[in-house]
């Protein structure tokens, strides 16, 4: 028999069903047609609610009859739980959380499309959930404003110079966005965090996590690390000086030779000792060349002696947390390398600054003109603390624009 169903939004459907079909099966058919979950459907025939277990013929439904689908109270409750405040946060975050957690299909979609929101819903931090909802709301507002601006530009006066500049900027930004989308699709790993290259070594019998840096001119050891390895007694202070490059640090001297163990083999190594806390031990280009090392990123190993010894680079989980914290610290207080080695990773973030390192030689300090304090004040107004601003201006040789770029990039 044919049955006519009118939905809550006045949509009319005609279904071909068996008279002995159950109401529950009818709801299942309607779920396919209307996308309204079976649990949220309420069907009425002749003003009475139809129970799931009843058969259509038993309650008097005949060919051509009309059945009404009305919103269920559960559906209205569900809508109340999803209500948001004007700032995008949930009116009842606990109820929203329970609503999502109770719908496995919805959670699966959320985990795939918005993992950050899904994790916040599954977590216990209500404030984090509210912050993510507010953030999403702001993103939607920004997108809406952008679309409105683009629409306004379409109808702008073609002879208006300012409007043409905005159109040019919008076209340029569209190209950037398309380039970003292509990178997300074809090169997503470029947006991940790059783990620096560390290997296990022994210096004078003491195990260390050595940072392998082919962009550093010399091998570096900190004063504390040298003392821990029993090498500070060999420090030649005739090589004292100051290294200025990406930052500034005092050179305490050199240790001319000491044994290091890589894998199962021992090698002689010389060190420049710096009074710096943000790098424990750095295996630089001088020793990489001397011992014919190969950085093999395909097999993720460091080969020494032309390949006679191979040691694996450490995974992120194997690198101690204090070393990872030092990497973050080095963004604002980076190691000055000079002849002690200029880090390749630091060079990517900051402009070149004159390098100088000589026994008992003076430091080369970036000039601080009469407008230095004005530059400091201007950058502090952007929200950065004064110490970081002064450090950035020194690193960038007093260039205000480069210092601002460094602070925003850090």
TrEMBL record:
Report any one BP term from Gene Ontology: proteolysis
What SUPFAM superfamilies does the annotation carry? Acid proteases, UBA-like, Ubiquitin-like
> Pfam families given for it?
Asp_protease, Ddi2_HDD, UBA, ubiquitin
For this protein, the record's Gene3D superfamilies field holds: Acid Proteases, DNA helicase RuvA subunit, C-terminal domain, Phosphatidylinositol 3-kinase Catalytic Subunit, Chain A, domain 1
A cellular component term from Gene Ontology for this protein is: cytoplasm
- Stretch list, region Disordered: 330-368
SMART domains linked: UBA (SM00165), UBQ (SM00213)
Q: Where in the cell is it found?
A: Cytoplasm
**Residues covered by the UBA domain:** 371-410
Q: Where is the composition biased (Low complexity)?
A: 359-368
* Any GO MF annotation of the entry: aspartic-type endopeptidase activity
Keywords for this protein: Aspartyl protease, Cytoplasm, Hydrolase, Protease, Protein transport, Transport
Q: Say where the protein is mainly found.
A: cytoplasm
**Cross-referenced CDD domains:** RP_DDI (cd05479), UBA_scDdi1_like (cd14309), Ubl_Ddi1_like (cd01796)
InterPro entries, per the entry:
Ddi1/2_HDD, DDI1_N, Peptidase_aspartic_DDI1-type, Peptidase_aspartic_dom_sf, UBA, UBA-like_sf, Ubiquitin-like_dom, Ubiquitin-like_domsf
Q: Which domain of life is it from?
A: Eukaryota
Ubiquitin-like domain segment(s): 1-70
The family assignment reads: Belongs to the DDI1 family.
The entry's protein name is DNA damage-inducible protein 1
Q: Which organism is it from?
A: Brachypodium distachyon (Purple false brome)
Ranked from the top, the taxonomy reads: Eukaryota, Viridiplantae, Streptophyta, Embryophyta, Tracheophyta
Gene label: LOC100830741
């Amino acid at each position: 028999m044919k049955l006519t169903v009118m939905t809550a939004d006045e949509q009319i459907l005609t279904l071909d069903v068996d008279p002995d079909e159950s109401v529950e099966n009818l709801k299942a058919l309607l779920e396919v047609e209307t996308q309204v979950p079976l649990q949220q459907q309420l069907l009425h025939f002749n003003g009475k609610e139809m129970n799931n277990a009843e058969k259509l013929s038993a309650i008097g439904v005949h060919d051509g009859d009309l059945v009404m689908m009305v919103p269920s109270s559960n559906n209205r409750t569900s809508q109340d739980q999803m209500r948001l405040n004007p700032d995008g946060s949930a009116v009842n975050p606990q109820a929203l959380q329970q609503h999502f957690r109770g719908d496995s299909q919805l959670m699966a979609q959320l985990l795939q499309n918005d993992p950050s929101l899904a994790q916040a819903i599954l977590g216990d931090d209500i404030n984090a959930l509210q912050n993510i909802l507010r953030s999403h709301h702001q993103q939607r507002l920004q997108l809406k404003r952008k679309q409105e601006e683009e629409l306004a530009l379409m109808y702008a006066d073609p002879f208006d110079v300012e409007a043409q500049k905005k159109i040019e900027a919008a076209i340029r930004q569209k190209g950037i966005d398309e380039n970003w989308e292509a990178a997300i699709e074809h090169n997503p790993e470029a947006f991940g965090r790059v783990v620096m290259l560390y290997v296990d070594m022994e210096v004078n019998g003491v195990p260390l996590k050595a940072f392998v840096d082919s962009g550093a001119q010399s091998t570096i050891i900190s004063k504390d690390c040298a003392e821990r390895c029993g090498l500070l007694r060999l420090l030649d202070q005739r090589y004292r000086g100051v290294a200025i490059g990406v930052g500034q640090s005092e050179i305490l001297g050199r240790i001319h030779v000491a044994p290091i163990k890589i894998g199962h083999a021992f090698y002689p190594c010389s060190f420049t000792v710096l009074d710096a806390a943000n790098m424990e031990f750095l295996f630089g280009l001088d020793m990489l060349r001397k011992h014919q090392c190969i950085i093999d990123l395909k097999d993720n190993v460091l080969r020494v002696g032309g390949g006679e010894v191979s040691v694996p680079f450490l995974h992120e989980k194997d690198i101690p947390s204090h070393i990872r914290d030092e990497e973050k610290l080095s963004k604002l207080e980076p190691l000055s390398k000079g002849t002690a080695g200029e880090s390749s990773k630091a060079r990517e973030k900051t402009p070149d600054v004159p390098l100088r390192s000589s026994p008992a030689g003076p430091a080369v300090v970036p000039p601080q003109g009469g407008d230095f304090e004005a530059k400091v004040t201007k950058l502090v107004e952007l929200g950065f603390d004064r110490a970081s601003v002064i450090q950035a201006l020194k690193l960038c040789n007093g260039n205000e624009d480069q210092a601002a770029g460094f602070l925003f990039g850090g």
